[in-house]
Amino acid sequence: MRNVICSLIFAVLALARPTLAQPPTPVTVSAKALTDVVAPGDLVPVAVIFDHEDGWHVHTNAPVIPKELGDFPAIPTQIIAKPEGPLALGSIQWPKVEFVMVNFGTPARYGVFGGRAIAYLPVRVEASATPGTTATIKIETSYQACDDKVCLPEEGTSLTVSFRIVSLEQKAAAGTPPSDPDFAGFDPTVFASAASPATSTSGKPSPQPVKFSAFGYGFSIDPSGPVGILLLMLAAALGGFILNLTPCVLPVIPIKIMSLSKSAGNPKRALFLGIVMSLGTVAFWVAIGLAIAFISGFTATSTLFRTPWFALVVGLFIAAMGVGMLGAFTVQLPRAVYMLNPSNESAGGSFFFGVMTAILSTPCTAPFMGTAAAWAATQRAPLTVSTFAAIGAGMALPYLVLSAFPRLVAKVPRTGPASELVKQVLGLLMLGVAAFFLGLGIVALVPGLPIGLKGAYWWLVALFVSAAGLWLAFRTFSITRKPGRRAFFGLAGVLLAAASVVGAVDLSYVDRSWTPYTRATLDAELAKGRVVVLDFTADWCINCKTLEQLVLSDRRIKAALRQPSVAAIKVDLTARQAEGWAKLKELNEVGIPLLWIAGPGLPDGWKSNAYTVAQVLEAIQNAQGAPSRAAR
Predict the structure, then answer these.
(1) What is d(CA 406, CA 261) in angstroms, rounded to the nearest whole number?
(2) Is-contact 160 296, C-beta < 8 A?
(3) Which residue, 64, 55, 63, is CA-closest to 27?
(4) Model's pTM, two decimal places?
């Protein structure tokens, strides 16, 4: 059973790897070290080389936009390096800026990197390095190629530079490495920054504070010391805990409570199963951390949904769980199938349920969790994995507490008609969740689907949820004669059915007041001096849909978006090929929901993953150039 579960985790990660070939690019990026044979204490430069075709260039690492280009949204060139082994990295020596004439609407002299532009990364081999071992540096680059009139979408490359560590005697015997003209422009004084343990692996001189915010409240954490790292882990765990309160996970909590109630009379058994389930939850998030640290192109849980097969596979598994809740697993089935039954109180079943609970959370991003995950994605592998393990631990905490104190759930009915009714209702709800994931996969597989049909699967979701509500109301009258219970559960079932229909109407509705995102549309609106409101969303993002219904559908927000000076643009990230992914990365975000507002009064923009009506209205007003107070 362990092999089946492990295979599931790695199959999911394999499905998430990008498989589409990249289009031709006028920029070729490569990396090499002055020598790949080093000794403890050595200082060696690594060259990251950008070769441009004639007439092409990339933006610098810190673009200076000429006033003739106004608010031209240049995407900076970035180099992020992660050492694996006893290596310390210093500040990047960027190429010399060259000036070219461009005409992005208005002629201007603009500083860029062009030709054979070489950035140098100073590397120091730790004195404690063991001869006979190897060390590597994984380098991620991102850049935007332009000619004198147009710019292409943002691109990136993944590179690896390896070193063979030898003894000082072996290094001396090898002699001086041959001269390489690509290192003629290297300035050895940048090695000074490689001697500082606080130097960032992204080439920045020191770590920047990590800023957390949610619903108008915020704080920052300095990650440069052990106390800061500990606080970041606690913030990540808090985000994982809050994930349980998102619409993605809430439907499965009653299932676990009901299963724990069966072991309430055996505290040791309940605690054991709770620990195993928690390990399943943590294991999934650790797998995500490993994927981000070692799989090129995997940057966040949202990366999973760039592959339609992930949603389809998850949908099928959840459908199997729902069928199990409805009682289909009472017949004799192959033994391996029984781990799909969430009511199966075995170690394997509990571990699998923990994994599935974590998978269900992937369409959602909780406050604090998204910021911690974005920070972790740029760190060394141990910190990346530790942060995601903290998210998993926070998510598993409430289940562990319930299993440690089983008396909290001892009053939940374990047998009889009421217990069966709860299982049947939850089974129908799980089938609704399965319909959601399957619908996502189908929509992503058919990118040319008419916009009016993209949300049709919400009606299938509503069908199962309505069936659950109506069955609850109907069976309650058969099970009990008590007027109070009949009134309460009967009304709850009818309201659930009605709410599902209303939800399907809202979620399948296409709001044509929002303009679909393209980079050209965004640039044109900013050039006109209009306030731009970018709503990053996706069909698989439940939090996005929730915020759209609760905040962006508010009449005051709608009135503000209808102003002539405001442009409302929807950035749909449902498909892996969506153009908006580049903009999300440009904003240094790895997950959604996200709202970004910019304009004459807010040239750098305002963004938030969790926002209120008042905050959005204030940000729009500030972006118009008439701030009432600083937008948070």
Answers:
(1) 7
(2) no
(3) 55
(4) 0.49
- Residues pairing with 134 in the sheet: 164
Paired strand residues for 595: 535, 608
Sort strands 566-572 and 515-516 into parallel, antiparallel or unpaired: parallel
Coil, strand or helix at 428: helix
Cα 91 to chain centroid distance, Å, stands at: 28
Q: Is 270 helix (H, G, I), strand (E, B) or coil?
A: helix
Q: Confirm if 299 and 386 have CB atoms less than 8 A apart.
A: no
The CA distance from 440 to 417, in Å, is 35
Per-residue burial over 236-269, b = 16 or more CB atoms within 10 Å of its CB, e = otherwise: bbbbbbbbbebebbebbeebbbbbbbbbbeeeee
29 close to 157: Cβ distance less than 8 angstroms: yes
Task: Find, among 497, 529, 515, the residue nearest to 580 by Cα.
Answer: 515
177: preceding bond cis by omega (within 30 degrees): no
C-beta of residue 593 within 8 angstroms of C-beta of residue 547 = yes
Q: Which of 200, 351, 372 is nearest to 292 (CA)?
A: 372
Neighbouring residues of 174: CB distance < 8 A, sequence distance ≥ 6: 37, 166
Contacts of 52 (CB under 8 A, 6+ apart): 26, 27, 58, 113, 114, 115, 116, 117, 145
Q: Which domains does the chain have, with CATH numbers?
A: 27-194 (2.60.40), 214-445 (no CATH), 515-623 (3.40.30.10)
- Per-residue pLDDT tens over the stretch 45-99: 999 999 999 999 999 988 888 888 776 778 889 898 888 888 888 888 899 999 9
Interatomic CA distance for residues 96 and 115, integer angstroms: 11
Q: Is there a contact between 126 and 140 (Cβ–Cβ < 8 Å)?
A: no
pLDDT digits (tens, 9 = 90+) for 546-584: 788 788 888 899 889 989 999 999 998 876 667 888 888
Nearest to 614 by CA among 522, 537, 561, 551: 551
Sign of CA dihedral 574, 579, 580, 582: positive
CA distance 379 to 84: 11
